[in-house]
Amino acid sequence: MSADVSSPSAEAITAASGSNLALALRVLPRGRRRDMRVFYAFCRLVDDLADEPGLPLQQRQDGLRAWREALESAEERAGEPALAETLREVFRRREVPAEWAIEVVRGCEMDLAGTKYVTWQQLRQYCFRVASAVGLVSARIFGGRHCELYAEELGLALQLTNILRDSAEDFAMAGRVYLPEEELERFGVNAGSWVVGRPEGWSALMQFQAARARRHYAAAVAALPASERRVMVAAEIMREVYGTLLDRMERDGFEVWKREYRLSRGRKVWLAASVFTRTLVATAGETRVPCEKLPYVDRVR
Fold it and tell me: Is residue 206 exposed (0-12), middle (13-18) or buried (19+ Cβ within 10 Å)?
């Protein structure tokens, strides 16, 4: 018998995360919020396998492989991760292609292989896997049926913002550098030099990265169909929160070596309420027409 989708493990993982997504999920209807908590718990579990330095490398690789094999299977298997069948039930109910979640696992496996990205296109594939693929699954659970491009573009923007925010911590804790090597060279910035202060070329490099992120934020806005605005309100809250965070970093000159860039809970609640209210006003009186089913379109770069 499969686990209940409202199992305490999924609830506990989501509640303990303190993430921006956990806040955004509060605007969802109860059933969709429950299913998103299961998916988010999966995301946290595989991300922890990629990031937990206390686990031997082989154990982390085996854990990610077990998840990939569970997602490739249509039926419950002995020894698979405890949450696997619950997740498959969510995917069946919401018509989510398992391949999207498998992409998330592949992204975590990329972290285990080392974070060396020479070009933006190489980094873009990583961002697609760990963020855009999460967005594709989330959009389908939210009820979106015409949001693939929106989810892809927003995922890229959010992940780029994360990379900028965590650039000092990633290098200090694990020696990870996600910024493309050819762009570091173009602006004359040595890998990891931003951990101890502002290196020469840092401001220009960060302005370049911020402009790229904003292009993806703008592309996401342009790609969101008017008919999907209400069901995608949780994603729009994420866009507002991370866009505000990017603005704050830029105002400070991206001083990641001495500041931990986070928004207060009060600020995030205010942003969420503002987005929710604007969305309700903008969509008031709209006739809700059931969305047709869309086949999975492979957008992996």
Answer: buried
- Residue entry with tokens 């090597």: 181
The beta-carbon contacts of 12-21 under 8 Å, at least 24 apart in sequence, are: 13/37, 13/40, 13/41, 13/44, 13/45, 14/40, 14/41, 14/44, 17/44, 20/238, 20/241, 20/242, 20/263, 20/268, 21/234, 21/238
In tens digits, the chain (301 residues) has pLDDT values of 333 434 446 666 655 555 667 778 888 999 999 999 999 999 999 999 998 878 899 999 999 999 999 999 988 888 899 999 999 999 999 999 999 999 999 999 999 988 899 999 999 999 999 999 999 999 999 999 999 999 999 999 999 999 999 999 999 988 999 999 999 999 999 999 999 999 999 999 999 999 999 999 999 999 999 999 999 999 999 999 999 999 999 999 999 999 999 999 999 999 999 999 999 888 876 644 333 333 333 333 3
User: Which fold would CATH assign to domain 8-282?
Assistant: Farnesyl Diphosphate Synthase (1.10.600)
Task: Say if pTM beats, i.e. exceeds, 0.90.
Answer: no
DSSP for 238-284, please give it. HHHHHHHHHHHHHHHT--TTT------HHHHHHHHHHHHHHHHHHTT
- Residue labelled with tokens 């579990």: 45
C-alpha 253/C-alpha 135 separation (Å) is: 29
Q: How many angstroms separate the CA atoms of 229 and 36, rounded?
A: 18
239 phi and psi, to 5 degrees?
A: -60, -40
Q: What is the distance, to the nearest Å, from the Cα of residue 101 to the centroid of all Cα atoms in its chain?
A: 12
